[in-house]
Amino acid sequence: MEFFDPQCITYSQMNLIFNARYYYRRLTTWTTAYLMSRYYGIGTTEALFERLYQESIDLGDMLHIIFGRQHSEKYSQLLSQYAIIFHELISAQLEGDIEGVNRNVERLCQNVYERAAFLEFINPYWSAAEYQDIFDAYLRNILETANAVAAGDFNKNIELYDLLNEHTNRMGDAFAKGIYSYLTTGGSMLDQDTLTTGRQVPCITYEQMEDIYTIRMFWFELVTWIRNYMISIYTGVGNPEETFDRLKQVPVEYIIAMKNFFPNIDVENYLQLFNEYLTLISGFITAMMENNTEELNRITRSLYENADKRAAFAASVNPFWSEEQWRDILYINLRSTIEESSSFLSGDYEKNIDIFTRLLDQAETSSTFLAQGLFEYITKNQPINTGRD
Q1: What pTM value is reported for the model?
Q2: Is the CB of residue 363 less than 8 Å from the CB of residue 169?
Q3: 3 state DSSP class of 237
Q4: Which of 71, 219, 345, 349 has CB atoms 3.0–4.6 Å from 67's, for a disulfide?
């Protein structure tokens, strides 16, 4: 990240990095959901491929405003080819067509080469060699994930999920670095004078940005692992206990990152509130499967009470977080999570995909609220650095 000053990351730079990472994280999430639909019939394959296809071309759309329509359309075409080839690869594997598998793996590798070369062509601050290395590593892990799903090795799946997340960060950082370099060196319509005034702007360190990212991704991880847990419970795919253990790790990582900013935070109490929430979600799923209306009503009341407590706790930690806004965020998430559980129970997978899409969108909105409050807290409680926005 040499083009970003590690001692002075501004808010717009932070968002550029976050948005790039977030795009690749969504791509991985939909790829995994698509694989589950192909190998286990969880969800409508056509609808999930459509989501994967759309995520694949969204990055091309992001390039439009900077590099123009022609370049963005070309890159979108390359990304859509990637999704189509991947689809054909999985079909070949399911059919036992070894020749087809090998042919499509070669096509994916060629697609990686073409995408890396094209990115360097449109932006001299992107390196084809660096991108090919990153894309190759990501592709290897995606193919390993496909093999693990096919083999029913869900422990391996959990390991690969974390590895893929590391790669999404690398790809996002390379993308953000190249965009920032292009914009700040006269490569676009951006007014260079506004970037070199030496004005004082609020900024944070790269390490602080990484902690904010961990906190920001909490919502994304939470909705992803709750979904994985629901899949395990409702469909019998995977080990529910192991999936629940991984789900419980999500708030632990979040609270550890929070403690870096708020040393006096009551970690035990905050973690207890999250563990209570996850236990209630588990109980809600069980009651729903047993059609126990009385228990469902009791747990639902408890879930909203828990949301109130978590909202109050978060607002007490950071004065730049509104308790009312927190409560709204938690209530919206809770309603969507309950709907998601209902759609799994009824087997309405098209609705289920729509709900999960909504949960991911809500996670992005919630994470922005988190990041804004943290950035304000940090910059209001430390001297302002001189940086370039």
Answers
A1: 0.89
A2: no
A3: coil
A4: 71
